[in-house]
Amino acid sequence: MPDFRLPDLGEGLTEGEIVNWLVSVGDHVSIDQPVVEVETAKALVEVPCPFEGVVSARHGEPGEKLAVGSVLLSVGAPTPLPPTPLAPTPESPVSSEYSGNVLIGYGTTHTPRRRRSRPGTPRESNAQDHRVERSGPPSSTSAPPRPAAPAVISPIVRQLAREHGLALDRIEGSGPGGVIRRADVERELARVTAPAPEPRSGRRIPLHGLRGVVARKLATSRREIPEATVWVDVDATDFLAARAALPSVSLLALLARFTVLGLKKFPELNSRVEGDEVVVLDEVNLGFAAQTDRGLVVPVVRDAHAATTAELATAIAAHTAAAREGRLSPAALTGGTFTVNNYGVFGVDGSAAIINHPEAAILGLGRVIDRPWVVGGQLAVRKVAQLTLAFDHRVCDGGTAGGFLRFVADCVESPVTALADL
C-alpha cells in the first residue's frame, strides 16, 4: 500500500495546513488527481496524488498542520468488509466496541474484561489469584476507574491545549462523536484570553497562513528599511487614450511597461540590501499587488524586462485570475525585485505604500479623475492621477528616485515617448 507524503511545496516551505479534503476513504483516485487543498505560508494550493488506486486512509484533518514529508494519504486496494460478528459466547464475552485499539489522541473507552477459565481447565495460579478468589464483592473503598482521555483530532491539538493551559475535558468538541478539533481549542483560547466584556462586541482574526506571512513581511519592512516617499501629479489623458487603443492591455500592464523601461535607466531601484552590500539585479521580476478574498497577495511576473507589452498584460491577467481562485503556486509569489500597485481601484488619490521586503522600491498609481490642468497656457479639464514612489534610501538618493519617477510620469503623460526606449 503506497503512502503519499506531503511534497515540497516550493522555496523553503516546511509545512502546510490542511484546508479541505477533496477525496474520501474508499474513493478511487487517478494519477495527478487533486486530493487535498493545503494552505502554506505562500498560497492555497491543490495537491495532486502521484498514485492510482483506492483511498484507504487520510492522515490529518482540516486545520491540522503537516510537515513536508509527512504521510498525507494511503492508496491501495479496497479493504474487504469484516465478517458479521456472531453473538457473544462464553468463549468470547468481550464486545468489539471495547477492543482496546488506540487511535492517535483518542484513548480507549473501556478496559476489556479478563476471561475466566472454565472448570477443569488448568491455569496459572499464584498467591494473589487465590486471595482474589477468596475475597468477596469489591470493597466500596476501591479506587474508581480512571476516566477516558478526551478524544482529540491529533496530537497537535493536545499540544496546543497544553501550551496554553487549557483543560481538554472542559472543551466541547465539534467533530464527529464530539471529537475536539483545533478550531475548538482556538475558540476556547479566544474566550479565556478575551478582555472583560465591553458595551461593543468584536471578532478575532488569527494572523496565520498567508495573512500571517504578509503581516510579518510588512513589520520587517518597517523595521529594517529606511524608506522615503516621492510623488507627482500627472496628466493621464493620453495614458487613458493609449489604454483604449489597446483593449487587451490594462492600465496596470501599461504602467508595468513604463516601470520596466524606467528600471533600465535607473537600475539602482531594482536591487536589494544584503548585509553591507547593495546588490543591483540584472533581471526584473515584477510583482504587482492583487486583492483577493484571502487578503492582499503579490504575484510575480518573472523576466518582465524580456516581455512585450502584450505579454506583460497576458501574464498579469492570468496571475490575477489564479490568485483570486486560489490556484497560484507558491513559486509565483516569491522572487520579486520591484512592485507596482494600482491602488486607484480603491478610489484613493495616493498612498505612502510599504515596500515589499526585501525589495528596494514600490510604485503606485492613484485614481484617475477630472481636474483643472494648464495646457499650453490655457486652463483645461484633464484626466489627472498621482504617481507615488516609496524607496529604500540605502540603495539610492532622492536624485535617482526622482529621476525614475519623472521618467515614468513622462511616459504616462505621453505614452508615445516610451517608443524611443522599446
TrEMBL record:
Record keywords, A-Z: Acyltransferase, Lipoyl, Transferase
Biased composition (Pro residues): 82-91
Low complexity composition-biased segments: 137-149
InterPro entries hit by this protein: 2-oxoacid_DH_actylTfrase, 2-oxoacid_DH_E2_comp, Biotin_lipoyl, CAT-like_dom_sf, E3-bd_dom_sf, PSBD, Single_hybrid_motif
Organism superkingdom: Bacteria
Region (Disordered): 82-149
Family named by the database record: Belongs to the 2-oxoacid dehydrogenase family.
Protein name, as recorded: Dihydrolipoamide acetyltransferase component of pyruvate dehydrogenase complex
